[in-house]
Amino acid sequence: MGGVGIQSGQIMADKGVETVLTGSCGPNAFQTLQAAGIKVITGASGTVQEAIDKYKSGELKAISQANAAAHSGMKRGK
C-alpha cells in the first residue's frame, strides 16, 4: 500500500470526485489524482466554505505538478 495521499486519491477516484481543494499536494498524491482525472486546486486555507468561496471567485487555481515535497504533511510525532 502507498501513503495516505495515494490511498485518499484512490478513494476519491472511486467516489467520482472531479476536483480537490487543498493547501498543498505532494508528488504521490498528485500523480494518483492526476491519473484519475481529478483536478487539483491548491492554496486553500481557512474553513471549507472560505476555500470554496475563494475557488469560485478565481483566487485558487489548478496546478499541473506537485507543489509539496513527498511526506511533507507528515508530522512524525510532533
From TrEMBL:
Transmembrane segments: none
Domain Dinitrogenase iron-molybdenum cofactor biosynthesis: 2-56
A matching Pfam family: Nitro_FeMo-Co
Signal peptide: none
InterPro entries listed in its UniProt record: Di-Nase_FeMo-co_biosynth (IPR003731), DiNase_FeMo-co_biosyn_sf (IPR036105)
Gene3D superfamilies (UniProt xref): Dinitrogenase iron-molybdenum cofactor biosynthesis domain
Protein name in the entry: Dinitrogenase iron-molybdenum cofactor biosynthesis domain-containing protein
Organism, scientific name: marine sediment metagenome
